[in-house]
Recover the amino acids of this structure.
């Protein structure tokens, strides 16, 4: 039965490939985090049994995220998607299979990083008053939302149903001229990339951070933004409609989880 | 040429947003209506007459959307409106229906070839939904065959799973097939033996965003036979095509006979009315289904509908619209070519679909449409357009001039 409810499997994909992945942006945006990691090089492999796996790597002042299994220093194993989702919620710990020497990093620095991530991804009205906080929140929420949407399209039952009707093409989302992410639809599988593709089939342009923030935090509605030209949609609108449906499905996951 | 400004529209939009979700809902609004960019389009109408409407800023438009179909004789057609006014004095929504409901049913039965009876409602979606219920009542089966990308209204079963508010149970009895693929229909029927109540489709394929497609040779004849052989009710959604192709019904136009035929858009030249027409064989099932609405038997729309149909017959409307449509689309094609664009026109000339075929990102097309609208020709980007009978040769000339200038602007923007 195709139900619209949270399944732990999809949630694990969202938590890893969207939430943990956004550490890449956090690292660039928050100087404290960069300082915290310092000049350490460390590659953390996440493996969720019967779920996603990915590598988070800090190397030479850069943070990268790679889906799948790769060469690593620390290997964190989760027995199930639920186990992983509980860790994200702070309710359980991973089983480190390798890299005991670097475990210190995990219990201290990595813990701080995930706490910071949570701080930025769970805004309050007061926090959003702070311009710098609001900007970081917006950027993180922006990339997290598009990454999460792809996980829903690729793994959730209703999401896959939605993806099945998408034809190949690229949808670009931008905030001003500084943030750009595009979703590539290829054979009903969705993937995000930073930047702008050669050919754009549909565009969703937020004129500024404030607009994107309002939309992502549900404080303004899309129609007002369109009316005041703060949000522009163009190109193959059905693709945006379907992505919007996926965003709605994604919000079901993120809502229940908070 | 002067280009329009829409200050008043924008002001009203902001006001509307406060009290109406989305301000201007759905297809008439800037998102579903694809008003790209929004400042090229008017949002509220002030008045309408014939082939034109004037927006709240006083800009005049030659209107090729015709209220998404209903405007077939021209806005405010005097014959229709005077009849409506006469009926208004006698009462509209009353405890008992008026004689007009019978007269309208008789007129439809005498006009549309397949019809032995008519049942009335308000919107197109009311009757597409009814067609499924009649088919289920008649056959005792549960499933429906639908064409991928077809539009039949807004009831949950017509919508896409994954969209807010639509759940799997709403669409689980739908089987989707590609347009014009007879073998797929055959296979679907084989796979769902004795489970399919209804095959519901438009007479030709007129989705948004895609080239419209006529039925292949013998497609409908083969589908008709397949449905008959398998006890499946063939329901035709003639809501958009109805009376623009053929007053005798679009099934008649394509040489077959539907069991049920849904009409709405052109029935009352804008007065709210829809109808499902059926053969005698469907009559008992239609009687057995409980189906009604408070306003469905109001008399003004019937009076207006009778006047509309009589006038459509009198002026040989389908031929007239076809000729106007051909003249206009040939002209648009030529103007496009003169400016180095390839404009692809599909569908029936009286409700043609067009797109600039040189660019699959749709940007050029959206820009061109926006430039036309800014100059007073109201097209939409990705829905078929409509011809109405009051359109004049002079309107077509103005349209072609605007289209030409709009092409030149787009060319210049990209040179
Ligand atoms: C082919 C077709 N079917 C059904 C409908 C639904 O009609 P309504 O919007 O009046 O419910 C439409 C309306 O656009 C239509 O074009």
């Amino acid at each position: 039965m195709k139900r619209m409810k949270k399944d732990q499997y999809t949630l694990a994909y969202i938590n890893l490939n969207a939430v943990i992945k956004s550490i890449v942006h956090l690292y660039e945006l928050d100087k404290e985090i960069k300082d915290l990691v310092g000049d350490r090089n460390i590659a953390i492999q996440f493996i969720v049994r019967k779920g996603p796996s990915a590598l988070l790597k800090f190397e030479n002042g850069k943070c990268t995220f790679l889906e799948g299994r790769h060469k690593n220093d620390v290997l964190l194993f989760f027995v199930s998607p639920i186990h992983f989702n509980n860790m994200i919620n702070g309710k359980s710990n991973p089983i480190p299979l390798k890299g005991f020497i670097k475990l210190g990093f995990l219990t201290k620095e990595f813990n701080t990083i995930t706490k910071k991530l949570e701080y930025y991804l769970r805004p309050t009205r007061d926090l959003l008053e702070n311009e710098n906080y609001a900007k970081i929140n917006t950027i993180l929420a922006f990339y997290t939302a598009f990454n999460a949407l792809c996980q829903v399209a690729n793994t959730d039952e209703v999401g896959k149903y939605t993806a099945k009707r998408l034809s190949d093409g690229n949808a670009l989302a931008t905030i001003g001229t500084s943030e750009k992410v595009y979703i590539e639809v290829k054979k009903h599988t969705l993937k995000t990339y930073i930047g702008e593709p050669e050919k754009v089939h549909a565009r969703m342009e937020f004129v500024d951070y404030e607009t994107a923030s309002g939309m992502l935090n549900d404080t303004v509605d899309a129609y007002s933004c369109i009316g005041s030209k703060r949000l522009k949609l163009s190109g193959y609108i059905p693709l945006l409609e379907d992505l919007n449906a996926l965003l709605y499905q994604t919000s079901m996951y993120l809502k229940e989880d908070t | 040429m002067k280009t329009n400004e829409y200050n008043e529209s924008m002001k009203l939009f902001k006001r509307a947003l406060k009290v109406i979700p989305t301000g201007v809902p759905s297809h008439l609004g800037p998102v579903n209506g694809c008003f790209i960019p929004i400042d090229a389009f008017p949002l509220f109408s002030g008045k309408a007459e014939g082939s034109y409407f004037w927006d709240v800023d006083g800009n005049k438009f030659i209107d090729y959307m015709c209220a998404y179909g209903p405007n077939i004789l021209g806005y405010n057609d005097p014959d229709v409106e005077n009849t409506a006014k006469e009926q208004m004095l006698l009462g509209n929504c009353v405890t008992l229906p008026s004689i007009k409901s019978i007269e309208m049913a008789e007129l439809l039965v005498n006009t549309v070839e397949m019809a032995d009876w008519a049942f009335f409602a308000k919107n197109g979606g009311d009757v597409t939904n009814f067609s499924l219920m009649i088919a289920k009542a008649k056959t005792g089966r549960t499933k429906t065959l639908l064409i991928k990308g077809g539009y039949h209204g807004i009831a949950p079963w017509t919508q896409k799973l994954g969209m807010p508010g639509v759940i799997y149970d709403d669409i689980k009895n739908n089987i989707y097939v590609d347009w014009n693929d007879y073998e797929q229909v055959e296979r679907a029927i084989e796979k769902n033996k004795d489970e399919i109540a209804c095959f519901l489709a438009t007479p030709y394929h007129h989705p948004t965003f895609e080239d419209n497609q006529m039925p292949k040779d013998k497609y409908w004849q083969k589908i008709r036979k397949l449905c008959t052989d398998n006890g499946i009710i063939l329901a035709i959604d003639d809501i958009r095509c109805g009376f623009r192709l053929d007053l005798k019904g679009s099934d008649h136009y394509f040489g077959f006979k539907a069991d049920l035929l849904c009409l709405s858009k052109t029935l009352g030249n804008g007065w709210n009315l829809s109808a499902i027409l059926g053969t005698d064989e469907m009559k008992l099932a239609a009687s057995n289904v409980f189906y009604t609405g408070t306003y469905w038997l109001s008399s003004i729309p019937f009076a207006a509908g009778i006047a509309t149909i009589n006038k459509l017959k009198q002026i040989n409307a389908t031929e007239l619209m076809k000729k106007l449509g051909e003249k206009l689309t040939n002209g648009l094609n030529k103007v496009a070519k003169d400016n180095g664009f390839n404009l692809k026109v599909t569908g029936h000339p009286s409700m043609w679909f067009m797109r600039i075929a040189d660019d699959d990102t749709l940007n050029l097309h959206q820009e061109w449409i926006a430039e036309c609208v800014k100059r007073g020709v109201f097209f939409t980007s990705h829905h078929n357009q409509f011809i109405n009978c009051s359109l004049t040769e002079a309107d077509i000339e103005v349209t072609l001039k605007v289209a030409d200038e709009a092409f030149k602007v787009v060319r210049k923007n990209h040179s």
